[in-house]
Design goal:
With about 90 residues, the protein is α+β, with helices and mostly antiparallel strands. Strands 3-2-1-5-6-4 form a six-stranded mixed beta sheet, with no helix packed on it. The N and C termini lie far apart (about 60 Å).
Length: about 90
Amino acid sequence: MKQLLGYAAVAAFALLVIGGSASALVLSDDPIEGKVAAFEKGKSLELEVGAEKKKYTVDDKTEIKGEVAVGKAVKVWVKEGAAVKIEVKE
């Protein structure tokens, strides 16, 4: 019985660790801040960051807060070249 409780405790801990890691994978720690150079909903976002432009894919899973438009300042969280979350700075 004690051994079963031990296994249950280890399994619960593993689920907590895996759950925490999965949520950490969703968003990059630090968002990229810049101005929208081009935006096509459901396809792509081109962002001016200083003197360079960066392009990210956008799909139906991308969380968008605010009205994205060319020239607006935004924060973008990225995972593997895709915009996971876009937040328009007011």
